[in-house]
Amino acid sequence: xxxxxxxxxxxxxxxxxxxxxxxxxxxxxxxxxxxxxxxxxxxxxxxxxxxxxxxxxxxxxxxxxxxxxxxxxxxxxxxxxxxxxxxxxxxxxxxxxxxxxxxxxxxxxxxxxxxxxxxxxxxxxxxxxxxxxxxxxxxxxxxxxxxxxxxxxxxxxxxxxxxxxxxxxxxxxxxxxxxxxxxxxxxxxxxxxxxxxxxxxxxxxxxxxxxxxxxxxxxxxxxxxxxxxxxxxxxxxxxxxxxxxxxxxxxxxxxxxxxxxxxxxxxxxxxxxxxxxxxxxxxxxxxxxxxxxxxxxxxxxxxxxxxxxxxxxxxxxx
Amino acid sequence: xxxxxxxxxxxxxxxxxxxxxxxxxxxxxxxxxxxxxxxxxxxxxxxxxxxxxxxxxxxxxxxxxxxxxxxxxxxxxxxxxxxxxxxxxxxxxxxxxxxxxxxxxxxxxxxxxxxxxxxxxxxxxxxxxxxxxxxxxxxxxxxxxxxxxxxxxxxxxxxxxxxxxxxxxxxxxxxxxxxxxxxxxxxxxxxxxxxxxxxxxxxxxxxxxxxxxxxxxxxxxxxxxxxxxxxxxxxxxxxxxxxxxxxxxxxxxx
Lengths: 318, 254
What we know:
heterodimer, A: 318 residues, mainly alpha, B: 254 residues, alpha/beta, Rossmann fold, six-stranded mixed beta sheet, 9 helices
């Protein structure tokens, strides 16, 4: 069963090692920009992992997932603006607000299916976007500057770039482990069954709506955490972090990397954002190159990059 | 045969626009019997099963299952009361393994599934009963294959295995032999015969040979109405049935 050469495992291990060792390299080379870029990548990967839980495993095609980035981000921004800098307050509030928001949106949108579900999640996210754009007290369209990052106890200092990177990375790995446990549990079997065949699930005795809703809430909460991190990284939060194209980026990361795989979304986030960065250095019309590339992956690599690696493995084996 | 009724259907009606799919239908099924429902295409057999299982809500009429009114109960609640269903068009979790399919059916009846941590694929409480059902269904060698890799005949067996996994009190079988070859059909008849008496069965089936071999009682539907109900001998002798249904093609075999 165990092949001698396993591309998929090698790529995953190399990726993890590279992410863990990155600050060493940037420290030695003095390339601070790379560390900032990868902090953003790690945070977006966390958001993609959360979307993968509901999209990949749960089959729920949310087109409004970036809304939770905004909710989490604004929870931190607004509290900081009002003088509450304690991270032990800010972050739980960010998570709770995202969970509550996901509960309301999920409860309504999960009554629909297919295209309607996509449209209603998109509509809710856009409503949220315009709501925050209209909050004059918190900067409205221009966004809200965060003058001080979330404060934790003594050794933890989010202003230290290396430390902040490792905190984000630890949370990303924690989220991957959490999703992995969830998806293999009874709960995970129930949501995957509902993805596969909802009517059959109800016919054999599952109230699938409840399981989908809980999955929706967990995914939204995890994404809210990514939002809190993102606000801290940027020292700034604005409505644009929950614009619908952001939700689209998250979907691309999940599909590009490989849906319903533990590491797929991380691979997708790294691939998309590094490519975006590299291509935008070459030409300002980088999207003309990126678009067809994505098209090729969707057309010829079903299962994304992770699926491509798995297939390469089975070719080597046979 | 004439035990207490486990399922009572009273004056059931369902229409889709101008089409009457179920027309003032009443039916009683005794506990332990194998009751076949036959009728030409479009007689409303699948619509009847859909209403009994809760996939469709009737426009009027009542359904009682072991004393409780289940007319408006959602599908999953009926399943929990012990009313299981197989589908005419194979309806499985194709991207999961054969064992996963059956284990999910076991899990559905093993309390709630808000259990987030333990590996469900390593829970003997789910896997052992599922394996036992697969042995009974003759699918144990296929347990670890994805359900999509099975043949049509095996899909039908898995369909039935999933309905059985919940240890139901009553089975609603919608054409379990649809599309099966002669050998697979007779294997299915053997399986159903083994179940007979242990669990109440409502069988919708086009295979007349199988129906007359297995059924304790038969109800004949035409245009959503019951035109006859009785033992296989009664049905064979019934003039209205011969004219409306059997007389045309399959009457010769009866």
